[in-house]
């Protein structure tokens, strides 16, 4: 079992998502606020985090994304990332988190991936 093995393919959801857009810098000063926004959304359903307007993210920001995934997992909702910058994409690759944090080029791709039925699983179930 991986450290973040979330068994998301077992989650039942209706394929709908809430988009939470983050902007500016995600660092030690802003990460908790961003986490609170994502956590509030994941309490109600599956979430796509739009990172396309994030100009900078540091280790506390990456940690926040992992914590957000854990929170979503606790309530059996999906968390998908959309539009990460080159910097964040590189960080996710280096840390081996891309397999854990479902990442898509943009919001439309993330929403479509979430809504698509997968291998007999209900809409929104990820593989």
Automatic annotation (TrEMBL):
STAS domain mapped to chain residues: 19-114
PROSITE patterns, per database record: STAS
Matches recorded under Gene3D superfamilies: STAS domain (3.30.750.24)
Q: What InterPro entries does the record tag this protein with? A: Anti-sigma_ant, MlaB-like_STAS, STAS_dom, STAS_dom_sf
Which family is it part of? Answer: Belongs to the anti-sigma-factor antagonist family.
**PANTHER family per the UniProt record, alphabetical:** ANTI-SIGMA FACTOR ANTAGONIST TM_1081-RELATED, ANTI-SIGMA FACTOR ANTAGONIST TM_1081-RELATED-RELATED
Q: What is this protein called?
A: Anti-sigma factor antagonist
Origin species? Streptomonospora nanhaiensis
């Amino acid at each position: 079992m991986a450290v973040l093995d979330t068994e998301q393919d077992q989650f039942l959801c209706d394929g709908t998502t809430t988009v939470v857009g983050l902007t500016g810098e995600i660092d030690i000063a802003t990460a908790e606020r961003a986490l609170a926004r994502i956590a509030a959304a994941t309490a109600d359903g599956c979430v796509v985090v739009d990172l396309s307007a994030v100009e900078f993210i540091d280790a506390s920001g990456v940690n926040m994304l992992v914590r957000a995934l854990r929170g979503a997992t606790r309530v059996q909702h999906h968390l998908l990332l959309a539009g990460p910058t080159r910097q964040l994409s590189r960080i996710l690759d280096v840390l081996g988190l891309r397999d854990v944090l479902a990442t898509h080029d943009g919001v439309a791709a993330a929403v479509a991936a979430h809504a698509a039925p997968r291998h007999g699983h209900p809409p929104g179930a990820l593989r």
